[in-house]
């Protein structure tokens, strides 16, 4: 019985150490060079201060910025430039994505401040040409 307990304990410790190594490797990657999925459940209009429920998923990478709303509508932005340095997802930082959506300009600021992740998105609507400004509080982050 004692040998079985020792073997199980040793296996659990090894599994935990391996998991911590993997988590550290994923989290400490350069945010600018890593593909990351950001999940949000609410969106705020900074101009009016109003918020509403809106399940959104963002996927960012060195040359990618994609926004999916409620698992139905996807906006694939063209990334012209990424500015800033953010070497560790666990630390505060910010990146600025200069974007285009159907040829119209936009900007996204992806940041972590005081341990909270936010995506602020500004772009011109292709249909009407008016600028839209939205702010998403990120609930979940996954580096791939």
Concise structural overview:
This protein is of the alpha+beta class and 144 residues long. 18% of the residues lie in helices and 54% in strands.
Q: What would your notes on this structure say?
A:
By secondary structure, the chain is an alpha+beta fold. The protein contains 1 helix and 8 strands. The protein has an 8-stranded antiparallel barrel with strand order 1-2-3-4-5-6-7-8. A hairpin with a 6-residue loop joins β1 (36-44) and β2 (51-61). The protein is elongated.
Distance between the termini: 41 Å
Q: Could you say how many structural domains there are in total?
A: 1
Low-confidence stretches: 15-27
Number of strands: 8
CATH class categorisation: Mainly Beta
- CATH 2nd-level architecture: Beta Barrel
- Let me know the average pLDDT: 85
N-to-C SSE string, H for helix and E for strand: HEEEEEEEE
Estimate the global geometry from the Cα principal axes: elongated
CATH topology, anyone?
Answer: Lipocalin
- What is the beta-strand fraction? over 45%
